[in-house]
Design brief:
single chain; alpha/beta; Rossmann fold; 6-stranded mixed beta sheet; 6 helices; disordered N terminus
């Protein structure tokens, strides 16, 4: 009988602990929404230009071909904070339209004011209202995330097809790509927070189509150049930061873009 009594006490204790932990736990969906929202609230929207040099000189630039997968950190970040990606193709005439992906800003933060009330009925009504607000926000956020993912998926298909059939340009017109990148970053924004501006050019920096200097950017932006030779050439007046690979450039420029920031 003593053994049975001990077993009963242990089982009862474990059951009580389990019930207490379950009572304290937040539903999984709420955890996901809360984490995702916290990330979005801390991060500014991202506006980034990625210029891909398709001229013949890139054969000696010693840099890996750009793929949809290599841009994953940008997609992840856009699905967290919102923003826009513009892909420029640097050819003999680089003034063509960019391939653009726009993600709206996430829903505004849920603000809950905790009031202490000694009346149990008022406290219950307050908790009910807070739960309704959390549920409404979670639904809005799920809708936003679904829309953002759909936009990324559709864009990835179009970009993938374009990259698979990339032409080899006989000459390089970097100037036009720079001018259009500046125009893109200087466009009026609809976001409530100032965006983070990036310009990443995967190129050897050799422009053999223009004799005039590189145009300056009219808005603040972090500028990067990616190639295996470390050359800057035409981009020298812009003082870009050099990287050996796109992966390392994005790891530095978009450190929040990994899957670890998503709920």
């Amino acid at each position: 009988m003593r053994v049975l009594h001990i077993v009963f006490v242990v089982a009862t204790t474990i059951g009580l602990i389990r019930c207490e932990l379950q009572a304290r736990a937040v539903p999984k969906d709420n955890v996901v929404a809360s984490l995702s929202h916290a990330d979005a609230a801390m991060l500014p929207p991202l506006r980034v230009v990625v210029g891909i040099d398709e001229s013949g000189s890139m054969a000696t630039a010693n840099v890996a071909p750009t793929t949809v997968a290599s841009l994953a950190p940008i997609f992840d970040r856009l699905e967290t904070s919102g923003g826009e990606l513009a892909v420029a193709f640097i050819t003999e005439q680089s003034n063509g339209p960019f391939l653009r992906l726009y993600i709206p800003q996430p829903p505004d933060a849920l603000t809950v004011t905790h009031r202490t009330s000694g009346n149990i009925f008022e406290a219950a009504a307050e908790k009910k209202h807070e739960d309704q607000e959390r549920g409404r926000y979670a639904a809005q956020y799920r809708t936003w995330r679904a829309d953002a993912s759909a936009r990324v998926n559709a864009f990835s298909v179009v970009l993938g097809q374009r990259l698979q059939h990339a032409p080899v340009a006989p000459r390089t017109d970097i100037r036009s790509a720079l001018a259009r990148a500046n125009l893109f970053l200087a466009e009026p924004i609809t976001y409530t927070r100032p965006p983070k501006n990036l310009a990443i050019f995967i190129t050897d920096g050799i422009d053999n189509s223009n004799g005039t200097p590189a145009p300056a950017f009219s808005v603040p932006a972090d500028i990067f150049i990616v190639n295996g030779s470390g050359t800057i050439a035409y981009l020298m007046p812009l003082h870009p930061t050099r990287f050996e690979s796109l992966e390392s450039a994005l790891r530095f420029a978009v450190p929040e873009g990994g899957r670890n920031v998503r709920g």
